[in-house]
Every structure is written in C-alpha cells, then in structure tokens.
Amino acid sequence: MTNNKRVTRADVAKYANVSETIVSYVINNNRYVDKDKRERVEVAIRELNYRPNNVARTLKGKGSNQIIFIADQITNEYFSRIVSHMDKFAYNHGYLISLCANRNSQEFVSQVISRQYDGIIISSTSFPDEYVEQFINANIPLVLFMNRRYHNIPKNVGIIDSGLYSGARECVKYLISKGRRHILYIDRISSKGTKSTMDDVRLSGFVDQMIESKLEFTEEQIIAGCYSEEQVEAEIIKRIQNGLKVDGIFGRNDMSACVAMSAVKKMNLKVPEDISVIGFDNSSISRFCSPKLTTMEMQQEEISHAAIDMLQMIIEGSESDLRASFKTNLILREST
Amino acid sequence: MTNNKRVTRADVAKYANVSETIVSYVINNNRYVDKDKRERVEVAIRELNYRPNNVARTLKGKGSNQIIFIADQITNEYFSRIVSHMDKFAYNHGYLISLCANRNSQEFVSQVISRQYDGIIISSTSFPDEYVEQFINANIPLVLFMNRRYHNIPKNVGIIDSGLYSGARECVKYLISKGRRHILYIDRISSKGTKSTMDDVRLSGFVDQMIESKLEFTEEQIIAGCYSEEQVEAEIIKRIQNGLKVDGIFGRNDMSACVAMSAVKKMNLKVPEDISVIGFDNSSISRFCSPKLTTMEMQQEEISHAAIDMLQMIIEGSESDLRASFKTNLILREST
DNA sequence: ACATGATATACATACGTGTTGATATGGGAA
DNA sequence: TTCCCATATCAACACGTATGTATATCATGT
C-alpha cells in the first residue's frame, strides 16, 4: 500500500519551488504567470498527480459541479433513458448527477441545500410545492418538468413541458378517430406508499379531452390506486361485467396498457377488434407484447438536453428563455 | 424575494447569545453544554432554519455523505431496479447517490477522487482495472460487482457476486435438461461506442458450461457486436440458413431473447417446439412477450442491500466479511 | 524625463466548519 | 486547607482553496 496522504496545492508549490499562489494562478489561468514557472508547475502537477480538491473549491464558492435530479418513480425504462441522457449531457458541461426518488421530507430538502448543488431538476408528481419554494428561496438554479401543475413559478426557474398533457389528449383523439367512444383510463400500478396521482398531467389531458370531445365520462372509467397487475385486471373485468361499456383503453404507461390487454384477452374479447388499446412511453414491452402496442413516444433525448442546457443558462445567469415545450409522437402498431 | 444570505453557525450563535463553539458542541453532541444554552441553541437553529454546511464539514474530514455508483449501461429495467433499491438503502444510512455511466477516462477518475465521495460502487464490464487501482490507492471504500473478472483485489474491498456466472450456467443446464444440444448465445444489443464484452461473466458462464457438458461449440454460436435488433435478427437467420443447427437460444438479457424469438418466428419455426429460448433479468418484457419468456431472476433487492451494507462496514472500518454471493432464480414460462 | 500599462509575485484573508488546548468554576474527598 | 474531577466555555487553529490588495520590474510612448 502506497503512502496515502492527499496531495495538496502546497505539495505542488514545494515541488515546483514556487509559492502556492502561483500554483493557483496556473490552475485557474487567471493571472500573469512566468512562462518558466508555469511549466514547472505543470510538470509538478503531472508528476505528483495533483488535482484541486473539489470540496474546498466549492466552499470557496466555485460551485460543486454537481446537479441533483429529484424524481419519484425511477424504475421504469422511459425514465432510465432520461437519466442516461442527462448523465451524458451533464458530464459534457462538467457536472455529475445525483439521483434520488421519493424523498418528500423537510429533512431531505435541508440536506440538498446544505450540499450546495449547482442545480436541481425535479421530475416528480408528488414533490410538494412548499419544498420547491425553499429551493427557489435558497436561490438554487432550478428546472421543473411539468409532470404536474405548478403555480407561481418565477421567471428564473426553467420549465419543461415534455408533452405529456397534449400527448394524452392526442391519444384520446386518436381513439376517437378510430370510432371509439367508451374509453377507460388505466393509471400506473403504484408501489405501496406512493401518493395518489390525481394531479398527473396525463390524467388531466385524458379528462379534458374526453370532456371537450363530449364523450360520456364518469369516474368509473378511471382505474387507479391499484398496487398489482392482478388488481388492475380484476378491476377491469369487474367493471365490464357490471355493464360498463368499453371499446377503448388508454394506459397511462405501456405497462398499464399491457395489463389491460391481458384482461381483455381473459374476457375472450379481441384487441383491437372489440377494444382498442393505446399505451404511453414507447418502452420495449410495447414492441414485444402481442398484439404490438400503439403508443406515444416522448422526445427523451431532446428533453434531457433542454433540461441541462437551461440549468446551465441559469447557472451562468444569462437572460434567456427558460420555457420549452415538446411534442410527443404517436407510434402506430397493432393494438388500435 | 426574501433576503438570501446563507445562514451560518455564527448567525445561530449570535441569535442564541452564545459562542460559535457552543453551537458546534450542541450539533455534534460531544461536549458538556449547559442545559439552558443548549435549549437556546436548539431554538435558534429551528428559528433560523439553520443546517450545517455539508461542504464545510466534508472539508473538515467528516465525510461527504455521498456515494458514487459507476456503471456502464444504466438504461435497462434490471439496472434501474438496482439503482432504485440502492437509493433507498443508501438514504437510510444518510447517503445520497451519484450515478454515472460509461466514464472510462483518467479525467473522470481524478474528478471522483477530488470530490471526496465516502464510497464507490462499481458495476461495469468496461471500467479499467487501472482506474480501480487508483481508487484503492486513494483509500476510498469500494465495492465491486463481479460483472467481470477482477484480479488481485485487496481484502478491504467489497466484492459481490450477483450470481450472473452461475446463473448463466444454470440456463444452459436447463436447456440441456429439455433435450437441447445446439445452443446459440445472443449478446446484448450495444449502443454505439461501447466496448466488446468478451469478459462478461454471463458469456463465460455459458461457454464454461457448454464445454463442461461436452456440447459442440464453435464461435459461430455466439452472436455479438450487433448495434440493432434488425442486425441481430439478420445474423440469426443467416447462420441458421447457412446450416447451423440450433434447437436452443440463450439471450444475455430478455431483450436479446425476445429479438431472437422474432427471428425464429420469421423463419416459421415455433418456440418452444422447434427452438427453446431462455432469457435473463426477468424484466417486464419477459412477461408480456409471446410466448412468455423463461428467464433468470436476480435478487436485486438483496444485492443492493448487501452493497450498501458492505460500503458502510468499510467506511466504519469494522472487520467483517466483505465477500457475498447470491443465487439467481429460474422463472419457468412458455418459451422452453 | 516621466507616466503608463503589461508582466509578475506574494501576503493575507475568507469560505463554514470541527477540534485542540487552555482556562474557569464548583463540589466533594483527602 | 489542598487536590482532584466533573462541568463548562471559548479563542485559535486547521481543512484546501480563490482572490483582493499591495508591490516590484520592465518596456513602451510621450
């Protein structure tokens, strides 16, 4: 085991026979430094394998080069793609990403603030407004995904509409264009302990479009709050057997839609002949299930790029437009 | 907009009319403090909403309470489950997790070291040994997933065998038990720019078991290095049409297995009658594809728990066993 | 000749915290 | 009394870095 003391700026200075200040100037490249000394410092840095301590720099106010991404559900394919893209783009800007899910506590908020992240991205249907406000008051650069409705967002907070709301409306319209009138909405299958998602924008989009298109619509057409696939299937079957008329199903995500398809099959009905099914996310199950699922694709890469870019803008303090909206893309397959 | 200066220990001291040192003692609870003053400090902390700056504490050597998880492919369901579990367990220990994928550069290694993470977890088939060594030399607590072979790992580095190697062997044995003799291996569909995965333990498991079971085996039975589903399908069809005998297919993950099933269907062969197919990961596509895929389930929650626990052990310096291995679990469905 | 600007260096301070060592008080035991 | 220990406090330093301020040298232009 080699000697293990952290190599510091003082070591470099000693090795290069210059003052610490010179070393600092070379590293930050913001002052005149004699050519000869500069070279000696560079050699010393390489030789000693020195790297400025990021923690100390952060304390001095240079930023932590870290971004935190606050989400709720991180365990689905659609989300992991976004994370992956963000990770990539963030790194191009020199940032590392911390990820966390379902941390809706004051304790957590305080921790985040005390860690001096350079920026925060929130994509959560359950993260309370009150906590978002604390981040805003702490003046931390912030970008929000409009997975749900926010109120009174200042101009210096980035907002990204990833198209979920309009996408959900598109889904309904498409089912209508296929002659469907009696549409069921299947919410996501939640893991225990997660809140209800009644302010989810996909659901809002669904409801708004149903009303705007003057389709008949009651609460019975929404299946939500289920914790297992079996429960969802049972609910669907029960409602249809109780006389609810259904010729179309809109799954909040592809998983929900697939579960709905199993339920339909179990009732010896055919997809899409008897009931059309449409999903959301264009995840891999939508391509491999049978029949293949018509679904809505999001511009995940573009969205991720926009989020990181916006954050960078805010961090740099440049006065640019911090609102962006994206459209979803309908992928036609066999289930409609 | 409220006044925005960071509230610091000095503010608390002033508010409570005590010295800064007293505040520190109250927070760290490591010295005698007068009961009255203690209460005043506690009130002040609450009133001012003070929280010790994590960055400054880190600089003073108290640890950053951050862990970094280095991976290669983070965009699949199996992995996102592990991340999700880790996030949960880590938070219970007071840690936040940074996530990053495919950062195989010296620059990145230096960055990680300079950020003073309390621990590192590596699950990558491509992260070079040389960099791992740097982490070890820097004395950063480290846990490795045996996704590939490592050499000369010191005793104070945690190692977790998640069962991929033995699981792969189980898959082969199971196909053999079903009377299959001519088995094809389908590697993962890689995104451009990723390295070949010839030291992947699943592949090793496959090869070793094929040889041990004395099945005929040539390189032609391995389909790897493809960048798209179409390419994989084409390769399978080509080889079979060229006369390669195939009655079983082992997909490195469920996605590969599903693609293989499409190829088989396109040749008007039947799964499982003509060719048995087995996957790996028990991801959701394995339940929704048709026929439903036999696959191998990993103990993701237990593995994640073990990783965080080990890291905690190393950080605390307690002398415990830092080796753990898990078994996979065969899930029988329709494809075999 | 002088003023000016570019080049070049170093000291001292600050970021917000944890901890050492010194000091003070009071009570009980010798 | 004197000694010891528990209680209680705080000034000063250290972690590793960035930078404002001060100072010095030198070439250039007037």
Percent of residues in beta strands of chain A: 5-15%
Percent of residues in helices of chain A: 40-55%
Biggest beta-sheet profile of chain A: 6 strands, parallel
Integer-rounded radius of gyration of chain A: 26 Å
Oligomer classification = homodimer
Give the total of beta strands of chain A. Answer: 12
| Low-confidence runs of chain A | none
Which two chains have the most extensive interface, and how many residues on each?
A-B, 50 and 51 residues
**Strands side by side in the biggest sheet of chain A:** 2-1-3-4-5-11
What structural category do the secondary elements of chain A indicate?
alpha/beta
What's the rounded overall pLDDT mean of chain A?
94
Spell out the helices and strands of chain A N to C.
HHHHEHEHEHEEHEHEHEHEHEHEE
* General shape of chain A: elongated
Key terms for this structure?
homodimer, 14% strand, 4-stranded parallel beta sheet, 336 residues, DNA-binding, alpha/beta
